[in-house]
Amino acid sequence: MSPLLVLSLALTVSAGGALAFALHRRRQRLVAVPAGTSAPIEDQLAALEQRLAERLHDMDWRHAAALDRISATTDSLQSDLDWLTGERMIEQAIALARKGEEPEAIAAEAGLDLDEAKAVARLRRH
Question: CA 20 to 30 Å from 59, out of 6, 76, 86, 118?
Answer without folding.
Answer: 76
